[in-house]
Amino acid sequence: MKIYQRYLHGMPVYLVRHYWWAYLWPKAVWFFDHQMIINAILFGQYQKLMKATLARLQHAPQQCVLQLTCVYGSLTPALLQQLKSSALHITDVATVQLRLAQSKQKHGQRLLATRMNAESLAYKSNSFSTIVLFFLLHEMPHEVRCHTLSECMRTLKPGGSLIMTEYGELPVNHWLYRFAATRWMITWLEPFLDGFWHEDIELLLNESGQPLGKRVERVAQENIFAAFYRVTEFKIIQGCKLKPAPLHSGHLIPRGEGGDGGDPKSNPYKCNDHAQHTRHIACSVDV
Predict the structure, then answer these.
(1) 163 has which bridge partners?
(2) Beta bridge partners of 114
(3) Prior bond to 69 cis, omega within 30?
């Protein structure tokens, strides 16, 4: 039996096969969560990326915020501090990651942790005012990325914000890309990054929003490290003004369109009928 197979139970196969060593192995979780390590992985840019993300959150609605999914480093504590008395919702498919996030919660802070697959969230439609994605999408295959973006569009309220901190567009002029050795190393460690570099995220969001009567408008983008990374805020607009077009290659219609619309003051954990029957979903705050 291959090493990764011991982590397969209740986990997406792509995650286990390609990232068990980074996110599921407890010793690796301890190792990578050191600030020095995660900063080195991001070529010394972690603090800049986190500060830019927090700056966008200051301008975004903060009534009900979801961090999708757990991340290493000090981002989650910083989000909790910025939200002050408001709760931060956080979800991840890996229990070991949720436990790590909860260990960073200080007394009096409200971190509402649930175990869910980002592809099929059990939250009601229009539950959140803001969703934060911090280096998530580039670690997903195309179809998984499309499902995740569809779920973001479904669970975000009109007028809400999607804050995406990610790799930039294809960095053909950046030295890390132009130098063959570093390009090989990065794409070997991140097997889905090349596909992400060739994706139009705004287009995928708008295609996902069409069946829901929603679209996005990019309101801000900050490029970091000579545009190797970016922090982008998309605003969710009610009413799709785009002309109907064929779905993007490999793109699937958003799933889980059930739900009652959901006031953010109500319980966002009420599972819709679809999510209750979806594999790898666990609607629980007890991790």
Answers:
(1) 132, 233
(2) 91
(3) yes
C-alpha distances (whole Å) from 178 to each of 39, 42, 43, 171, 183 are 22, 17, 16, 8, 7
Query: What domains sit in the chain, N to C, each tagged with a CATH number?
Result: 3-276 (3.40.50.150)
**In terms of Cα–Cα distance, which of 281, 264, 233 is closest to 87?**
264
| Residue 180 Cα distances to 42, 174, 183, angstroms | 18, 11, 5
Nearest to 233 by CA among 214, 215, 220: 220
Residue 272's nearest CA partner among 123, 150, 154, 155 is: 123
Produce one character per residue of 264-274: b if its CB has 16 or more CB atoms within 10 Å, e if not.
beeebbbbbee
pLDDT digits (tens, 9 = 90+) for 115-164: 999 999 999 999 999 999 999 999 999 999 999 999 999 999 999 999 99
The amino acid at residue 287 is V
